[in-house]
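Quick one: structure tokens for this chain, please?
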Amino acid sequence: MDADAFLDSRLRVPPPAPTTWLRATFKTILGAILLWAVARSIPQGQPLLRGWVGMLGLILLLHFGTFQIVALLWQSLGVRAEPIMSAPLRSTSLGEFWGKRWNLGFRQLAHELIFRPLYRRLGPDTAAFSVFVVSGLIHDLVISLPARGGYGLPTLYFLLQGAGVTVERSQFGKRLGLGEGVRGWCFMAVFLTAPVFGLFHPWFVLRVILPFMRAIHAL
């Protein structure tokens, strides 16, 4: 999504290491196994669990696997194509997770189209929170609208993420060490996972994910 770097022929990168290829291939295969084998083995009486396993497999297959392999192919040609995911579990803060490691394609767009225009007028904190508000609305459009239910829950999820980043960067959060080290990682993990069922709510899992899995013969 960073067109300037991608199209600049003067920027050349070294070929990716073999271990990087192995990790991307492993994640692709693991995602396919979860999606087409593990999810199918779960009893039909547990549709939410089936859907969640399928979603996890799909995310590994695409975002952490296939998309990274595509980036590695470009890097092998010397093109600066950054993977869309940058080891998000290594984040030691909520801000680092959303700003530097998770879905960097969307992050690039949000930075250029939302954060930068609002930064000078509203300041960094309000501009950053606005990105979370817009992210929530977009996720409601692509999650709740097709599911015909759960309206507002994805937006609420991202409002909580914005609030978490605000607390993390506050003087109170800094005193507690929420933006670094083990405490930062634990704070991030709780904020990301505790409300995640509001992001991918049951309406979406039952009405979108499961039909999609049947369409691709994963169930």
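The first helix runs from residue 3 to 7.
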